[in-house]
Amino acid sequence: RDSHDIRLAVIPGDGIGSEVVAEGLKVLDAVGLKVESTTYDLGAARYHRTGETLPDATLAELREYDAILLGAVGDPSVPPGVLERELLLRLRFELDHYVNLRPVKLFPGVATPLGEARPEDVDMIVVREGTEGPYAGAGGVMRRGTPQEIATQESLNTAFGVERVVRYAFDRAAARPRKKLTLVHKTNVLTYAGDLWARIVDRVSAEYPEVTTDYCHVDAASMFFVTQPRRFDVVVTDNLFGDILTDLGAAIAGGIGLAASGNVNPARPGSQSWAPSMFEPVHGSAPDIAGQGKADPTATILSVAMMLDHLGLPKEAARIEQAVADDLVERRTAGAGRGTREIGHDITERVTG
Ligand code: NAI
Ligand code: MG
């Protein structure tokens, strides 16, 4: 088949998920690639109807696509943790999305709580480990609900798992103009895991003499994200620190409506460890505004651009990113009051040219 075909699995999910995904698909359509997409009904509605979160047969089907586009899952009617662990985290683990990629980039014209910050001050990529750390599900509970309850939640860090994400981060850093990699951890307190991460960064750095390496404790990093975001170019960090730090990143770069992400399996297509990567906005299903046509689809549209870049279509990705950048510049003056579909429409028009 033609190499520019994309076979895409779409999981709109819950709440605003389906609203923003519809706009993402419109923009994707406008770049003129041949896309064959199939929609999967997963999330809260499916769970209530059938009790299923991610049936094995569906997972097996999803493996056959080139990529997955996800809106958001989650609803107050589903017990916390069910969809997160059994659907989202399961997809990340099963498809070995060991890189969780979250750009933190301030587009021109976008308001930031940092006040004085300019676009060149906030331009980094956070490479968050996606399959290990405290999210691996290790631990347990005893005597639950009693005064003697014990709960443990262990952080798993393997040399293999850390090295592969660190190598990915060095590759990204080497390809950027500033060529700087910052490890963010808490090596002074989490001495076993922190030591493993620090030694691996140190060892791998010898293979990337052109990349400057730096280290920052996670608490200090949260401060510097706000006071000196310019310090950061590529950040590599563990699963939990990366989760928290990237919400802060989203806030400084214009808010949750703009933050895109990729759950990436970087293996080469055709290799044994390859599986489709999954792209999604950082935000959730926003039950407070769902169904009102108010959600900003920009984060999803930028996630579509990341997906094209990942699939080896950088020109098409850049066209979408430019269309978003142009739309954002005008939002300041003319953009107020537009809803989900208007923003999607306007960005689509710009891509079409
Ligand atoms: P949320 O991201 O859904 O909403 C937080 C706040 O941001 C809300 O006030 C919401 O209206 C606003 N917001 C979010 N996206 C927006 C957009 N595109 N445009 C304009 N405003 C937007 O986070 P929350 O409320 O903590 O979680 C709601 C549900 O989503 C929960 O069930 C949670 O588990 C789930 N969730 C799912 C995620 C995923 O699918 N990857 C990620 C985060 C949360
Ligand atoms: Mg999060």
Automatic annotation (TrEMBL):
SMART domains: Iso_dh. InterPro entries: ICDH/IPMDH (IPR050501), IsoCit/isopropylmalate_DH_CS (IPR019818), IsoPropMal-DH-like_dom (IPR024084). Residues 7-347 form the Isopropylmalate dehydrogenase-like domain. It comes from the Bacteria. The keyword Metal-binding applies. PANTHER family: D-MALATE DEHYDROGENASE [DECARBOXYLATING]. NCBIfam families: PRK03437.1. This is 3-isopropylmalate dehydrogenase. It comes from Sphaerisporangium rufum. The gene is leuB.
